[in-house]
Task: inverse folding
């Protein structure tokens, strides 16, 4: 197939010198689209049998896996597509299906060969369909937070009422999340939410519109916490300090604080503009939901665990250990924060 050859050329054409793609001596039988042998510089060879999709959604993975279940002995599955989103790639990896797309993305894994390459992360609209939708925006944020914070089953109208989002918008967001296998629906109701994967998926989109300012608390973090305890302004602690309060993983040296107005909060908390590295980040709340379903801890207001986790995905000076520890705490205490 011409489209298959183009994807193979783009994805495998970036391999270092010495790698070779050699068409298989005999074409694969239906329902497969073709096969080739990949030779490494050491001489090891692996046969890949491929299937080409104009579009692939994570919800298609079960069908793809069933199709590849009839592979010839010793052959490896390879899915080719015009574009594979990050979530699509995660799902395929979870099922051990090698994959490549026309942007140059490549992931193959066998007993003797492992190759990983990331191509373009976005794709423009084409005749094959519209561009993938993101999870950006306050309305989407409200729905994502509700799905994470409230236990299923959840009906569309219930989500709409709980978030003050039009039912039509809720349905469109759920359609996207269902395609990405982040929610599962039955008879229109959300029956299951993959909340950890949803938080990881939402975090990067949330960060794209984040407005924040790094400040200096001249007397240190402890003094700033004392000011917060007596502050007459809406706020919610997030990031490393909030995470460490629930699930200690590191000793935080700075604060991340959601506020309504950065300018007003800076004055109320006696913060200075940071000329270098500061110890307080003021984050302008993207929506009122940043102040909802909070936790009071040591007379301080912490953001919802789902919000803290989403911020930990991308905030500067945070670690994967913090997010993993917080996720473990959230799993153990789901009955307390998922209401």
Result:
């Amino acid at each position: 197939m011409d489209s298959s050859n183009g994807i193979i050329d783009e994805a495998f054409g970036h391999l270092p010198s010495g790698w070779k793609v050699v068409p298989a001596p005999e074409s694969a039988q239906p329902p497969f689209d073709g096969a080739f042998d990949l030779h490494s510089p050491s001489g090891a060879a692996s046969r890949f049998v491929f299937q080409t999709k104009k579009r692939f959604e994570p919800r298609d993975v079960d069908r793809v896996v069933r199709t590849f279940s009839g592979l010839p002995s010793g052959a490896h599955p390879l899915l080719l597509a015009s574009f594979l989103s990050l979530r699509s790639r995660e799902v395929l990896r979870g099922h051990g299906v090698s994959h490549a797309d026309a942007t140059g993305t490549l992931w193959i894994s066998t007993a003797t060969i492992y190759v990983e390459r990331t191509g373009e992360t976005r794709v423009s609209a084409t005749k094959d369909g519209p561009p993938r939708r993101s999870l950006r925006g306050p309305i989407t944020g409200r729905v994502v937070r509700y799905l994470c914070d409230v236990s299923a089953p959840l009906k569309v109208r219930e989500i709409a009422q709980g978030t003050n989002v039009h039912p039509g918008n809720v349905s469109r967001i759920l359609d996207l999340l269902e395609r990405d296998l982040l929610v599962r629906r039955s008879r229109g109701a959300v029956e299951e939410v993959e909340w950890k994967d949803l938080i990881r998926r939402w975090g990067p989109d949330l960060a794209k519109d984040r407005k924040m300012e790094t400040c200096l608390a001249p007397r240190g973090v402890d003094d700033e916490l004392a000011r917060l305890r007596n502050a007459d302004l809406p706020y919610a602690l997030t990031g490393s300090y909030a995470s460490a309060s629930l699930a200690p993983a590191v000793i935080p040296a700075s604060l991340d604080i959601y506020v309504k107005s950065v300018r007003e909060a800076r004055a109320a908390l006696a913060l200075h503009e940071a000329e270098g590295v500061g110890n307080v980040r003021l984050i302008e709340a993207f929506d009122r939901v940043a102040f909802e379903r909070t936790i009071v801890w040591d007379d301080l207001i912490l953001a919802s665990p789902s919000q803290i986790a989403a911020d930990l995905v991308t905030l500067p000076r945070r670690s994967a250990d913090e997010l993993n520890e917080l996720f473990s705490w959230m799993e153990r205490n789901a009955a307390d924060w998922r209401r």
Observations:
- The chain is about 35% helix and 20% strand.
- The domain at 2-117 is CATH 3.40.1350 (Trna Endonuclease; Chain: A, domain 1).
- The first strand starts at residue 20 and ends at 23.
- The chain has a mean pLDDT of 89.
